[in-house]
Amino acid sequence: MAIKGMDNTVKLYQLKPDSGHGAVITDVNGKKYIDMLAGVAVNLLGYNDAAVNKAINGQLKRYIHTSRLFYNHQGEKLAKQLVAKSFGGMVYYVNTGAEANEVAIKFARKWGILKKKGAYKIVTFKNSFHGRTIAALTATAQEKFHKYLKPLSPGFVYAKFNDLDDVRKKIDAKTAAVIIEPIQAEGGVNVADAEFMKQLAAFCASKKVLLIVDEIQTGLGRTGNLFAYQGYGIKPDVMTLGKGLGGGLPLSAVIVSKKLKDIFAIGDHGTTMGGNPVACAAGNVLFGKVSGKAMLKSVREKGAYLAKKLIEIKSPKIKEVRGAGLLVGIELTEEAAPYVESALKKGLILNSPKPNVIRLVPPLIISKAQIDKAVQIISEILK
Ligand SMILES: *Cc1c(COP(=O)(O)O)cnc(C)c1O
């Protein structure tokens, strides 16, 4: 399948969506699919959440866009919720995950000039994913993304994930920041060890290095904590959010801690569309729902249930099941692509960010019955 005249860089699923409801997509032929991809970890509340739709419609009737030069009540309300439930401070809006990381990188560079004698280096981790713009892709420490882009953006250093000794070697007086995903989702669902994360945070603090968590995929309840860093008992200096933040509309954000809120001054940040009121209206409803205690508890329960059921399949093709909450990776002993295809035929949408890893990121509102059905299909295809 291909779309005429549009984007030859993607291999399309053999499915033409007609509509979506909850965790299910119906195609143009009326066939239903359980969606374990959810718009690439975007549709946290599934399709057609009535409250999100209502909020969008409500703001549409007032205005769609005025630019960030004007008061934005939706943006203010969302920022208030975001800082209250994370680590305080200031919110800068943009539109995509990559952009949020770009802002975080620029922020760290200015901080380095003001507060650390011109420190500029950014340490990131092998197998990370931070987005598709040039600096964000340079931060993305995977050679396959760098191949055709050289020269890359200068000042990036790569460390081994879950290896504090290597981080120690890569940090010096010129290091401004470390950027880490608590779980490398695109990199194959690699979970940061609890001890590593704690020691990394302490080491960064001792070396006066900003700790930036990229929670674009792990944030907003995905792992069963509102933000994954909270599960580690650490406090980052900066956090980037995106994907589901706008309830399916483009919206991303950078949150900086209270003590950093005066680093950026007038003119240091700019965006034409960032913080769009319609996207923020959706974000307000979404955030209210995903930050609820009952919602987070249900994500932990369903995530544990899903992982347990997958382990019980006991297929020789499954090497490992790993993840947290409703971000689950199945590492296979062979290529995942053919299984993704056969699952689709049976009405299940899967995805493999790495050749031998299937990643499950269903909507947080998926039901236990839908999980059962999905696991049944996975067990059939991996027989
Ligand atoms: C998806 C993702 C990004 C990039 O987001 P875009 O909206 O595609 O730019 C960055 N970091 C992480 C961890 C992601 O999962």
Mean pLDDT: 98
Ligands in the structure? Answer: pyridoxal-5'-phosphate
Question: What structural class results from the helix and strand content?
Answer: alpha/beta
Percent range for helical residues? 25-40%
> What shape does the CA trace take?
globular
Residue windows where pLDDT falls under 50 for at least 5 positions: none
Number of strands: 16
Number of separate helices: 12
Radius of gyration: 21 Å
Ends apart, CA distance between termini: 28 Å
Question: Biggest β-sheet: count, sense, barrel?
Answer: 7 strands, mixed
Q: What share of the residues does DSSP label as strand, in percent? A: 15-25%
Order of helices and strands: EEEHHHEHEHHEHEEEHEEEHHEEHEEH
Order of strands in the sheet with most strands = 4-12-11-10-7-5-6
List keywords for this structure.
12 helices, alpha/beta, four-stranded mixed β-sheet, binds pyridoxal-5'-phosphate, 383 residues, single chain, seven-stranded mixed β-sheet
